[in-house]
Amino acid sequence: MFFVDTIQLEGLGNRSYLAGGECTAVVVDPPRDIDQVLAAANRRGVRISHVVETHIHNDYVSGGLELARITGARYLVPAGANVPFTRVAVADGDTVDIDTVSQVTLLAIATPGHTPHHISYALREAGRPVVVFTGGSLLIGTVGRPDLVEPRLTEQLARAQHASARRLTSGLPDETAVLPTHGFGSFCSSAQSEGEESTIGKEKSVNAALTFDVDTFVADLLAGLEDVPAYYAYMGPANTAGPAPVDLTPPALADPAEIATRLAAGEWVVDVRNRVAFAEGHVAGSFNFEADGKIATYLAWMIPWGKPVTLLAESAEQLADAQRELVRVGIDRPAAAATGGPASWLPAGQAPVSFPRSTFAGLAAQDSDVVVVLDVRRDSERANGWIEGSVHIPIHELHGRLAEVPQGEVWVHCAGGMRAAIAASLLDAAGRAVVAVDDGFDAATDAGLPLTTR
Fold it and tell me: Residue 151 class from Cβ within 10 Å (0-12 exposed, 13-18 middle, 19+ buried)?
């Protein structure tokens, strides 16, 4: 009997998989922190015999090379990927025995589109396809974006996505489960997944790649593409070269004097506590990226690549969680860290700083001629409606565009509060008077704020 265990990376919006039979298993698109994969295999009581990549990833650093080294597993990478390390090159039609006792095998299916070399893998039990690991090809209700490799290839790859989706659905039974790597929050997806699970049969009726003709599909796909996170430029090269093993040991502890020195040097001091605690009191000049939010995506997107980062957390556990998230995107070792709270991070006699939080109802009560409303949502979110007179700077651009925010008290909002908190911390560190609107955007209508739509 086959099994499939999902290893979910909620912060990055990705999934990896452990799948196999009674004795042995394969790992598909493993994360860089492979200890959780090894723990999953230990719980199942199986040996990892194979590690496979559907493609060279652009949104996170893979743990595949290290996992294969530690376990002695065969490391399968698409033949079209030009990599310098030793691997088993996988091409269309190749089959791999995963567990002979349970008669579990893999069939490689070329599905270019997300990347030129992309491979999907159908897991078969006694020759019958039961699931297909689709990586960044066919996702739940959508497909992986085709613009991460080379701009000149984008339309060509979009057309390949259409063809690959149809190849999968024409060659696999309707009941085959579709298990993608992307689509659960990852910016590698052209849109977010519509649900948590799907099958080949369901995708035939809902996926645009399978319901639209190729020209309509490509036009809609390309029109909907948004900005690429800046750190993606470093993920592909890291995975192509062969990532180094991770070091998750605790970073060196910083005292108040060192924290102040690092701030004075222009380094990033990042407070990973929740946004409520940060607003109530924090070290002046520090930025707030919540450890239980999308810290890996937004910190890696916004920080100048390679700049030292010091992490401030309320506990050793919270610090470890943040560190784990960051190694997944190549921010390997914090320059320093501290735990506790602002009282222990500041020199004697120096008090924490704070800023207020509010709601859209609170914003509606303000004089619109006095306050500045800053919208840090993405372009696609704003296109569905925005507060009349608001200034729009997407969160990932704000650090470089602070000078464009008009003078006055800034009320900053996003769609739910997390990105507004990041933006508020950037503005606060720059010396601006700021109020973080910690509220869902739907409440703007209920509050009677004037909205504009295209």
Answer: exposed
At 24, which helix (H) or strand (E)?
Answer: strand 24-28
Residue among 87, 98, 80 at smallest CA distance from 64: 87
State the Cα–Cα distance between residues 198 and 151, nearest whole angstrom: 31
d(CA 428, CA 423): 8
Element (DSSP H or E) covering residue 452: strand 451-452
* Side chain identity at residue 131, one-letter code: V
- How far lies 432's CA from each of 151, 212, 435, in Å? 38, 49, 10
CA dihedral 85, 87, 91, 95 (to 10 degrees): -170
Calculate the alpha carbon distances from 50 to 67, 74, 103, 136, 335 in Å.
Answer: 10, 5, 15, 20, 35
List 189's β-bridge partners, or say none.
144
- Token readout for 78 is 């698409």
Reading across the β-sheet that carries 309-313, which strands appear in turn? 287-288, 268-271, 309-313, 336-339
Q: What's the CA gap between 329 and 12, in Å, rounded?
A: 9
Q: What is the pTM (predicted TM-score) of this model?
A: 0.94
DSSP annotation of 95 reads E
pLDDT in tens, 40-97: 999 999 999 999 999 999 999 999 999 999 999 999 999 999 999 999 999 999 999 9
144 neighbors 225 (Cβ within 8 angstroms): no
Q: Going by C-beta distance under 8 Å and a sequence separation of 6 or more, which residues neighbour residue 158?
A: 113, 146, 217, 218, 221, 222
- Side chain identity, residue 236: G
Q: What element of type H or E holds 160?
A: helix 154-171
Helix ranges (H only) for 212-271 are 214-223, 232-241, 256-264
Strand partners, 179: 133
The confidence score (pLDDT) of residue 417 equals 96
**pLDDT at res. 314:** 97
Structural domains of the chain ordered from first start = 3-241 (3.60.15.10), 256-345 (3.40.250.10), 357-452 (3.40.250.10)
Tokens standing for residue 313: 């957390």
- The answer to whether 98 and 24 have CB atoms below 8 angstroms apart is yes
Which tokens in the block code for residue 331?
A: 């921010």
**Quick check: 104 and 149 in contact, CB under 8 A?**
no
